[in-house]
Amino acid sequence: MHIEVRNLNKSFGDFHAVQDVSFEIEKGHLIGLLGPSGGGKTSILRMLAGLETPSSGDILFHGKRVNDLPPQERGIGFVFQNYALFKHMTVYENIAFGLKVKKQSKEQIRERVSTLVELTGLKGFEHRYVHQLSGGQRQRVAFARALAPEPQLLLLDEPFAAIDAKIRTELRTWLKEMIERVGITSIFVTHDQDEAIEVADEIMIIGKGKLEQKGTPWEIYKNPQTPFVASFIGESTIVEDIKVLKGFDAALNYEGTKALIRPEYIEIGKPGEIRLQSATVNATVKALHFRGSEWMVELLVDNVKLITYRSLEKEVLQPGEQVSVLVHRAYLFNDNDSWIMENSLKVDPMPIHI
């Protein structure tokens, strides 16, 4: 299903939950609606499903305006955060529920449920009740039930929120593979950026009811278009006093400019480890956090905190130790503009506007 949303708005009293949001989704794509809690993601999803009525704007499926269509006529499958399974029904009965509502024959229902049980890895669990299943198995049942009536669009509201971390990681891979096999246009809501980056073909960043940016995970991470996106995706630190960063003097010509520094922008080393000493500043190691494959290092540069990573292969640093820091690039922004600038002491200082 091809989806187009034009100037979508939703208000709850004086609260403007969704503000003038427009986007298109190509048929068969898996889209992640990503943003902080309360940002408007679920409101957008519920309007697409017909569970909420837009205050203004248009929702089009295959070019047809569906604002006034009831949910059951939109060709949508919905997977809720809490699964919403029928506890008094077996796995088979839960999956078959929508097919019975459509008054399909017993043979049609048996064939469709059998296909979905195989697809979702639930074979052997058909006669179990909900309380006899793990969280991951319940989510698979919810997924199979949503797919049973063969919808054209699948909507998932924080589908992994109620599952423990280990199973959640496994289900991410499973969900992506299942949707690719089925070939259904799908949209899922999440506030977990790792989840969105791993699962989605494209991500839409939603903040304070507005669509901040839409693109592939790599495009959004590499070229954030707003300070909100730059600060939300990945780990970063905002530096208000740019003078503490050597090699970024040109940014001082733009009034009110701040710098957002990501960990991968920073090179850290003991004396002699960094070749370009003329571009480095001195820093103090504030704290270290073991991350399994590397150390996360908190630094203080003139009382400004920066965060970076250090390989386990290198000599371990200690809190309080003095180190050299080279900031290779910075995401700069002010009230009027945003751009990425390379350190002028190591490369051409020409800013790259995005």
CATH class of the largest domain: Alpha Beta
Query: Mind telling me which CATH architecture of the largest domain this is?
Result: 3-Layer(aba) Sandwich
Number of helices: 8
**Into how many domains do the coordinates divide?**
2
Unreliable stretches, pLDDT < 50, 5 or more residues? 348-352
Distance between the termini: 31 Å
Main beta sheet, described? 6 strands, mixed
CATH fold-level name of the largest domain: Rossmann fold
Shape: elongated
Radius of gyration: 25 Å
Structural class: alpha+beta
Q: Give the rounded overall mean pLDDT.
A: 90
Q: In percent terms, what proportion of residues is strand?
A: 25-35%
Name the CATH superfamily classification of the largest domain: P-loop containing nucleotide triphosphate hydrolases
Number of strands: 20
H-E order: EEEHEEEHHHEHEHEEHHEEEEEEEEEE
Strand order, sheet with most strands: 6-7-8-3-9-10
Measured as a percent range, the helix fraction is 10-25%
Quaternary structure state of the chains depicted:
single chain
How does this structure look, described?
There is one protein chain. This protein has two domains: 3-232, Rossmann fold, CATH 3.40.50.300; 237-353, Nucleic acid-binding proteins (OB fold (Dihydrolipoamide Acetyltransferase, E2P), Beta Barrel), CATH 2.40.50.140. The protein is elongated, with a radius of gyration of 25 Å. It is an alpha+beta fold and 354 residues long. The relative contact order is 0.12. It is 24% helix and 33% strand. Strand 4 (56-61) and strand 5 (64-65) form a beta hairpin. The protein contains eight helices and 20 strands. The model is unreliable at 348-352 (pLDDT under 50). A six-stranded mixed beta sheet has the order 6-7-8-3-9-10, sandwiched between helices. The protein has a five-stranded antiparallel beta sheet with strand order 11-12-18-19-20.
